[in-house]
Amino acid sequence: MNRKKQRMSPQSMIAWGFLILMGAVVGLSFIQEARDTAQARQQAEVAETAAASTTIVEIASSNTKQNWMDAVAAQFNAENHTLPSGDRIEVRVSHVLSGGSQQAILSGSLQPTVWSPGEYSWVESANQTWRDRTGRPLVPDACPQTVNAPSGIAMWRPMAEALGWPDTPVGWADLLALADSETGWAELGHPEWGEFKFGHVHPDYSNVGLLMMTSLAYYAAGKTDGLTPDDVYSGAVEDAFRQLELNTWHYGLQSRDLLSLMTQRGPAYLHAVTTSEAETLRTNAEQTGQLRFPLAFIFPADGTFWSQHPYCILNGEWVSADQREAAGIFRDYLLAPEQQAMAVDSYLRPVDEQAELHAPIALEQGTDPRVTMDSVPQLESPSADAANAVRDVFHETKRPATIVLVIDTSGSMGGDKMTNAAESARNFISRMSDRDEVYVLGFGTTPYWVGEGGPVAAVGETMAESVGGVFADGNTALHDAICMAADRVEELRTQSEADTPHLFGIVLLSDGADRGSVRSENFMFTTCLPDGESVEGVRVYTIAYGADANLDLMTRIANRTNGRAFEGNPENIERIYTAISAEQ
Predict the structure, then answer these.
(1) Tell me: the pLDDT tens digits for 114-132?
(2) Count of structural domains, the chain
(3) Average pLDDT over the chain, rounded to an integer
(4) Cα–Cα distance list, 48 to 55, 87, 89, 508 (Å)
(5) CA distance 395 to 168
(6) How far apart are CA 219 and CA 174, in angstroms?
(7) For the segment 472-526, what is each residue's pLDDT rounded down to a tens digit?
(8) 58 is in which domain, residue-wise?
């Protein structure tokens, strides 16, 4: 029987067409997915290969040359320099304090490929310690100078001009005579400026701090080279240090902090601070709208340190042969004329003294480009023993500090918070000089004195033990605690007026807002806190500890008293206490 051939209906044809189309789409999607997967795998392999073939050079560089080092490193990395093996070199720069980085390297918490502190004496001291430990130097090879960043004094320009700047040389003798004068600036025709108010950075942490105290030692010893520990321990040097320290009203961890304070508080607060030429020029350029007057940079006429900023490749076990080779390539790049020329734009002087200087190293920007090593002698770097002697004499002659530590022991401080805070406070006490005084006030529902306060030489060990025994409980009577601490400081200030002048400070740590105080916030601000108008006043340093702390209140307390406000956590609390100890 013949069958008729069935014709597919239009609807069926559409359905079959749709299925065929969908199949094609799905097939293509699978193909594309496979291609994408293969491409992603290939890209991952390329990235992995690139990562494996990149040699990273970590550089710990003193922060004076931060702008220049960042610019040169970025340019170097963009140019894709390689080792002879073909491995790409990547330079990463962290900016550090010379003294702080030395301590971190020796403790093992910082392990760079290259260390570039502000001055070679830090390297010599580190080498000595490393040899004692391992029998070999940390830096076995020569460290070439990278730039010149001379150290000196930043002073408000009208005051510097009253001393004769820029045409008349100004030396330590002029500054010490002004500091020691009973009539202060009146001797130079400016009684309205009052007594000379000086600040300097701490020689235990800051490159400029160590160098400027060493330059004072050279001046008092009548030398420009060959400074020995015997010179430093002599009566002449001790007398010069004591004369300066009795007229020093503010210390700092780094000169940038002191320059910021001068910017914020103006000429009535501080008149001059130790710093570098670079930091002075940077402040003039970046803070023009806030400065009451521009700053002038004074080269001590007796001689200064031109701060070579050596480039030292370390011999630590963490540095590979490839990293050493890559570090050498970047060293040569830094010293090339093109990169040296870039230094001037970052307020630094090239190694080649014959290189052309231009703005910002100019008189109108605050420094005298005519000054050279011929007109202001380059002082010889101190030996490690001489540098340690400078620190010793500084500690013996500086103004003692009287500190009240105010520690929140409320219930919210329980657990690791209390443990870490107490341990850091103990370490803070251990860093204080035997000539300092310490008192500790805990506060929960009510404030209470911890242990027996007094001179650190007499109570330091027992006070540290007492602090280690505090525990968390109760509310947060923050206002009452601040008022009690301020009352105690005023009593101590009155008692010490006839004795050796002290610096006074309160260090407050709290993790929350006030709860349960008898005194109001307004009462605390208007009646209890020192006004902070004068450099002679009591400074309050605040540590807002943890996410729940009242950061706004803590900041206002610190700013009101010319202190500093910090945001603390278990990871950074030790560094915060170190920063505070450097200012007292």
Answers:
(1) 999 988 888 988 999 999 9
(2) 3
(3) 87
(4) 13, 13, 15, 49
(5) 33
(6) 12
(7) 898 999 999 999 999 999 888 887 765 677 888 899 999 878 888 999 999 999 9
(8) 52-148+309-350
Q: What is the pLDDT of residue 12?
A: 52
- Residue 324, classed as helix, strand or coil, is helix
- ω into 166 cis (within 30 of 0): yes
Number of Cβ within a 10 Å radius of residue 38:
10
Q: What is the DSSP string of 111-163?
A: --SEEE-SSHHHHHHHHHHHHHHHSS-S--S---B-EE--EEEEEEHHHHHHT
Residues in the chain: 584
Q: For residue 2, is it within any domain? A: no
Q: How many Å apart are CA 308 and CA 148, to the nearest integer?
A: 5
User: Would you report the helix, strand and coil content of the chain in percent, each value rounded to 5?
Assistant: 45, 20, 35
3-state SS class at 189: coil
pTM for this structure?
0.80
Could you report the per-residue pLDDT of 188-230, keeping only the tens digit for each?
A: 999 999 999 999 999 988 889 999 999 999 999 999 999 999 9
CATH number at residue 499: 3.40.50.410
For residue 199, what is the DSSP state? Answer: E
Peptide bond into 447 cis (omega under 30): no
DSSP class of residue 82 equals: B
Nearest in space to 324 (alpha carbons), one of 56, 52, 102, 54: 56
CATH code assigned at 77:
3.40.190.10
Residue type, 80: N
Closest to 439 in 3D by CA, of 483, 511, 476, 489: 489
Residues 370 and 427 placed together within one structural domain of the fold: no
The confidence band for 19, taking pLDDT boundaries of 50, 70 and 90, is very low
Shared domain for 298 and 335, answered yes or no, is: no
Is 297 part of a structural domain of the chain? yes
Could you tell me the two tokens for 153? 């004094």
- Same-domain check for residues 376 and 506: no
In this structure, the answer to whether residues 275 and 345 fall within a common structural domain is no
Under a CB-based contact definition with an 8 Å cutoff, are residues 435 and 457 in contact? yes
Q: Are residues 418 and 313 in the same domain?
A: no
**Which single residue is written with the structure tokens 């209470």?**
448
Clarify whether residues 473 and 567 are in a common domain. Answer: yes
Residue 47 in any domain: the answer is no
Q: Are 475 and 445 in contact (CB under 8 A)?
A: yes
Cα(200)–Cα(250) distance, integer angstroms: 7
Cα separation values, 13 from 20, 27, 69, Å: 11, 21, 73
pLDDT of 50: 46
Within a domain: 375: yes
Q: Residues 124, 194: one domain?
A: no
Q: If you ran DSSP here, which 8-state letter would residue 453 be given?
A: E
